[in-house]
Amino acid sequence: MKIIASFLIPALMLFSSTDALIPITVKGKRFIKPNSDASTQGEVFFIKGIDYQPGGSSGYDSSSGEDALSDPDTCYRDAYAFQQLGINTLRIYSLNPDSNHDECMTIFNNAGIYLILDVNSGEQGASLNRADPASSYNSGYLSRVFKFIEAFKNYPNVLGFFSGNEVINDESNYAEISPNYIRAVQRDMKQYIAKHSNRTIPVGYSAADSVTLRRATFEYLQCFIDGDEDDSSRSDFFGLNSYEWCSGTSNWANSGFENLNSTLSNTTLPLFFSEFGCNKNLPRTFDEVSDGLFGGLVNTFSGGLVYEYTEEPSHYGVVDLNDDGSITYKEDFDNLKNEFANSSLPTILEDDVEEADIVTCNADIVTDIYPSFGANFTIPEQPKEIADLIENGVDTDNVGKLLDDVEAKKSNYTIYDHSSNEVESATVRFEASNEINTQSGVVVSSKAEPSSSSSVQAAASTSEESSTAGSSSSSGDGVMNIYVPTYGIWSLIMLVVSYAI
Ligand SMILES: *[C@@H]1O[C@H](CO)[C@@H](O)[C@H](O)[C@H]1NC(C)=O
Ligand SMILES: *[C@@H]1O[C@H](CO)[C@@H](O)[C@H](O)[C@H]1NC(C)=O
Ligand SMILES: *[C@@H]1O[C@H](CO)[C@@H](O)[C@H](O)[C@H]1NC(C)=O
Ligand SMILES: *[C@@H]1O[C@H](CO)[C@@H](O)[C@H](O)[C@H]1NC(C)=O
Ligand SMILES: *[C@@H]1O[C@H](CO)[C@@H](O)[C@H](O)[C@H]1NC(C)=O
Ligand SMILES: *[C@@H]1O[C@H](CO)[C@@H](O)[C@H](O)[C@H]1NC(C)=O
């Protein structure tokens, strides 16, 4: 059996009119970046990423009202540095669902940067407690998760959400008791997104760096319970935290990468490193990028995120964050930049990506890999309070959106290269194609979907040409024939709708 395109159709149908960077979708084991011309197929998207948490996770304090995406000057500074590094994706571990992220999210969007966000934080009640998942799985926790989804669901550059990070690990009996609670949280998140978001946002998990445990976790999360293709507790992607390859001393065979490639080659979902970059040998040369991740692993993995951007006490940074808010590139920064620049990635067209098989869950497959894994496929029931939150939506007025008046400019925080010379022209580049919805160029004849007035307004304010198409597509029922040069997404939606009907 194959996973039919039902996963993609809602994603395209419900495309919001203010979308800018085109949202990434999932097909089989790959992420797909749709083409900006809707009549042309998309391409496989490889993550060239970095983990981003200036100040460290312990620096996150919800009572401050601030987080990694609340200071636009920081975001201007770092968006420039990200473009120098050549990265396209960030992971952020702790964010405040009550803070305003519009300006930073717009800066990153316009700069061409996607984000994969952990919906949890280390604060009390803001994640599953791996030692006691049953009591921490409650409506207080889930209402924070749902507020988080509300805060980020309307940004097109959100690539996905992590439901958990290293919750299942090899300490104590955590691998025994937590797995089905991860699935419960994923089920609830995906149900919430299906009901309250205008597109399907992928939800997945980030696994600890333990060779047998991570493979058991992968098998546990990639399958469909009872072979039911609507099983919403399944992961849409799988991130591994991997520190097996140390710069300078590791290679394909002795690093464990060869083993990763052979044991995970049958994956039915996108795999990537949610953290990588062993720091045993400093400065790091990141040869695992060209020789591993974008070398031998490229048929199995879809890239990864280096741990991490800023230097913190654990010494994994590629920049030093100075007291005055300036940053200084470390040698690791230049090395990583060269590695990303020197890696040649294959171009894979969407049509050449196979739909994945529906793998039916089987506890024996999991426990054969890790005997004390709690391969329990009876997922905890959804408490009524959580069902009500999904039905009615969580109470929040913090629903983020992209802004259309954010300019490309230089941060007022200084950037120094690794010889401590100021980088003079550190102005972020905004690509015009990221700033507006440019998916275009389909001629269709179909029933029009009535569209909401707010999306028509948003379209008009984003692009002048778009207002015509926006109003014609909002003109009501009936059959219409339109050619839309810059606002083709509505045409695409109609094409999909007509196909579905
Ligand atoms: C998204 O969907 C909601 C309904 O769930 C609608 O009110 C809103 O206008 C849509 N937003 C955009 C930007 O299309
Ligand atoms: C992958 O699938 C093939 C064909 O079904 C099978 O022979 C092989 O054992 C599988 N590999 C792993 C690591 O599961
Ligand atoms: C990694 O696995 C893929 C898929 O099985 C295979 O095509 C590729 O040759 C492997 N890479 C190496 C370097 O062995
Ligand atoms: C590629 O790597 C070489 C070292 O092998 C380096 O000198 C060069 O600058 C890199 N090229 C780019 C475009 O970064
Ligand atoms: C599996 O999980 C369900 C739901 O939490 C629980 O009721 C059941 O006791 C668990 N089964 C085992 C064997 O632990
Ligand atoms: C940068 O500007 C912000 C306001 O936009 C201000 O709060 C901050 O102190 C400024 N930083 C520097 C280094 O000038």
TrEMBL record:
Q: Where are the transmembrane segments?
A: none
Instruction: Give the UniProt entry's GO cellular component terms.
Output: fungal-type cell wall; plasma membrane; side of membrane
Q: Name one GO molecular function term.
A: transferase activity
- Its main localization is other
| Principal EC category | transferase
User: Which E.C. number(s) belong to this protein?
Assistant: 2.4.1.-
A Pfam family for this UniProt protein?
Glyco_hydro_72
Q: Which domain of life is it from?
A: Eukaryota
Provide the leader sequence positions.
1-20
Question: What's an example GO BP annotation here?
Answer: fungal-type cell wall (1->3)-beta-D-glucan biosynthetic process
What UniProt keywords are attached to this protein's entry?
A: Cell wall biogenesis/degradation, Disulfide bond, Glycoprotein, GPI-anchor, Lipoprotein, Membrane, Signal, Transferase
Subcellular location(s): the record lists: Cell envelope; Cell membrane; Membrane
Keyword field contains Lipoprotein: yes
Residue ranges, annotated region (Disordered): 455-475
Q: How does it sit in the membrane?
A: Lipid-anchor; GPI-anchor
Query: What function does the entry list?
Result: Splits internally a 1,3-beta-glucan molecule and transfers the newly generated reducing end (the donor) to the non-reducing end of another 1,3-beta-glucan molecule (the acceptor) forming a 1,3-beta linkage, resulting in the elongation of 1,3-beta-glucan chains in the cell wall.
Which protein family is it in? Belongs to the glycosyl hydrolase 72 family.
Can you name this protein? 1,3-beta-glucanosyltransferase
User: Which organism does this sequence originate in?
Assistant: Wickerhamomyces ciferrii (strain ATCC 14091 / BCRC 22168 / CBS 111 / JCM 3599 / NBRC 0793 / NRRL Y-1031 F-60-10) (Yeast)
